[in-house]
Amino acid sequence: MDTMNTTIVTLGCSKNEIDSELMMGILKNNNYKFVSSLEDADIIIINTCGFIEDAKKESIETIWKITRYKREGNCKYIILAGCLAERYPKELLEEIDEIDGIIGTGNIKDIVQLIEELKNGKNKIIRTKNINEDYIERIKRISFRPTEYVKISEGCNNFCTYCIIPKLRGKHRSRKMEDIIEEVEFLTDNGVKEIILIGQNITDYGIDLYGDYKLYELLDHLNKIEKVKWIRLLYLYPDNISERLISSIKNNQKVLKYLDIPLQHINNEILKRMNRKTTKEDIVELISKLRREIPEVVIRTTFIVGFPGESEEIFNELYSFIEEIQFDRLGVFTYSREEGTPAYSFDNQVPEKVKTDRKDKIMELQREISYSLNSKKLGNIYEVLIEEQGDENLYVGRSYMDSPEIDGIIYVSSDKKLEIGQFIKVKITDYLEYDLIGEIVDEFGK
Fold this sequence. Notes:
Largest sheet: 6 strands, parallel
Oligomer: single chain
């Protein structure tokens, strides 16, 4: 087999990152060589996102930019993977001449076969519509950062009326507990410190395999792995957060007291139209219980504004709720009208400008909330994972309160040389709207 230089460009969510790493592992096992430069690549795989309109636009723009490497450079084949590829395979091949192949979310195990067919003269290959395929086990990662994501389930059974994911990623499928444990052991044996468990809805973990919600049991097992330092959880839908799960999060020392719980809205009429399985009353009770049981818990959530039927009065209810609850971390999306979803044809669609204004209003509120919450952290000491070095003696890190890339950071000045992936104790000396500033606390607490 001829060695071909390959590179993968990954867009979208962390679940896509894992799919890219799986493809890298498969290709490396078949003697494909990876290069970091697009100019040097014979094969460019673009792992696309097709979740909402903005993500689709970013994917299309990236694809068009990369096509020049085929026209002007070394690139022989451009292959699209991921959600956009699964969603619009024929349209993409018809519209963009430089694309040679499409591989869907459930077909990444076929990546070598697809490339071999291209090398043998076949063109415009589509491998999609296998969205309920089992997770590919025992493909070893080939790169290791201090923080790595581990997918514990694929797909989703929620069928929210605004969401296309079940049509792109299939039904909810949990991985076997022993396979997840083996992967986490392998990663931590290779220096990984923080494991982020991820899935479209990890609260449902185990229900399909074991007939019960088993995330609590998985956490109990992972907590016993000696080399694991931090275990972070993304994303916990609120409807099946049980007493057993809360207890497991509370009592397992390595499980971070950080919960990303996508709520999407608070008005009961909108929640019902969204086909969400919770009510405002359920949500208020859950947040109260979490804060009571785990006093140091940090709760992150996301909301959608401008969903069809969201009147000014309903929006104000959401705004007042956010003002009252004071979420530690919060993101806002404007409703994206997606073909193939029930909400696409709902009446009372909200104008784009109104959606944007509502998003801006909530983000301004959250800025104030975050600034106020950060002011109360002055003098607190946190364990911080160092992630990068800035200018001179300045370092950037995160505490348990922040997920990578989406939350805040802690700036740390240090006369001592710090290593990437090192944990240090930091005392907070100043604060910004979303970020914190601190200094190292030595062994005598100074």
